[in-house]
TrEMBL record:
Region feature (Disordered): 145-181
Protein name, UniProt field: Zinc uptake transcriptional repressor
Cofactor dependency: Mn(2+); Fe(2+); Zn(2+)
SUPFAM superfamilies in alphabetical order: Winged helix' DNA-binding domain
GO molecular function: DNA-binding transcription factor activity; transcription cis-regulatory region binding; zinc ion binding
Cellular compartments per GO CC: cytosol
Cofactor: how and how many bound: Binds 1 Mn(2+) or Fe(2+) ion per subunit.
Native source species: Klebsiella pneumoniae
Amino-acid positions noted as binding Zn(2+) in the UniProt annotation, renumbered to this chain: C103, C106
Keywords on record: DNA-binding, Iron, Metal-binding, Repressor, Transcription, Transcription regulation, Zinc
GO biological process: negative regulation of DNA-templated transcription; regulation of secondary metabolite biosynthetic process
Lineage: Bacteria, Pseudomonadati, Pseudomonadota, Gammaproteobacteria, Enterobacterales
Stored PANTHER family: ZINC UPTAKE REGULATION PROTEIN
Gene3D superfamilies, sorted: 3.30.1490.190, Winged helix-like DNA-binding domain superfamily/Winged helix DNA-binding domain
C-alpha cells in the first residue's frame, strides 16, 4: 500500500527526530498528524478539540508542550497575527527563509521558499537607519488581486527556528544603534 503525503511527512519527521536525538512522542506525533490534515493555520484550542477525539483526557498543556517541541524542531510555524500554527512544508531544510501568505477570506496559508529576503530587509533597514526587530520581519499591507479574486495578506519571512511576530505598525523597530537585530 502506498503512503499518503501526510504519512510520508510523518515518517520523515520521525527520521529527523531520530537523527537529532530528540523524542517524537506519540502525542507530539499525533499533533503533527492533525496539523498535516489542515488546509491553513489552526489554533491550539482547535487542535486540542481534535486531539480529544482520540485522547479525551488531553489538556491545553499537552497541546502547548507538543507545539513547543514542533516549533523547536522547525516542523511548524507560529502565525503571531492570528495566534495559530501552521505546518512547515520546508522542514527538511533546517535553515531556510520562507514567505507565508495567509488568505484573508478563507485562512489558507501558503509557504514558499524566499531565500535572500532577510538580506533585503537588513539592507533596507540599514538604508533607513533602523534595525530590523529580531521578532518581526513582515509587511502589514494586504496584497490584492492575487489568484483572481482571492486576497492574500501578511507576507512573512520565517527562518526556521526564528519565529517572527506580526506587528501591525511596522516591520522595523525604531532602534538607531546600527546593529542588526
Amino acid at each position: 500500500m502506498d503512503k499518503t503525503p501526510s504519512q510520508e511527512m510523518l515518517a520523515h519527521a520521525e527520521k529527523l527526530c531520530a537523527q537529532r536525538g530528540v523524542r517524537l512522542t506519540p502525542q507530539r506525533l499525533e499533533v503533527l498528524r492533525l496539523m498535516s490534515l489542515q488546509q491553513g493555520a489552526i489554533s491550539a484550542y482547535d487542535l486540542l478539540d481534535l486531539l480529544r477525539e482520540k485522547e479525551p483526557q488531553a489538556k491545553p498543556p499537552t497541546v502547548y508542550r507538543a507545539l513547543e517541541f514542533l516549533l523547536e524542531q522547525g516542523f511548524v510555524h507560529k502565525v503571531e497575527s492570528t495566534n495559530s500554527y501552521v505546518l512547515c512544508h520546508l522542514f527538511d531544510q533546517p535553515t531556510h527563509s520562507s514567505a507565508m501568505f495567509i488568505c484573508d477570506r478563507c485562512g489558507v496559508v501558503k509557504e514558499e521558499a524566499a531565500e535572500g529576503v532577510e538580506d533585503i530587509m537588513h539592507t533596507l533597514a540599514a538604508r533607513m537607519g533602523v534595525c530590523p526587530a529580531p521578532q518581526c520581519d513582515r509587511s502589514s499591507r494586504a496584497l490584492r488581486g492575487l489568484r483572481g479574486s482571492r486576497s492574500l495578506q501578511h507576507p512573512r519571512t520565517l527562518p526556521a527556528r526564528s519565529y517572527y511576530s506580526a506587528q501591525k505598525e511596522s516591520p522595523l523597530s525604531g532602534c538607531r544603534s546600527g546593529k542588526k537585530g
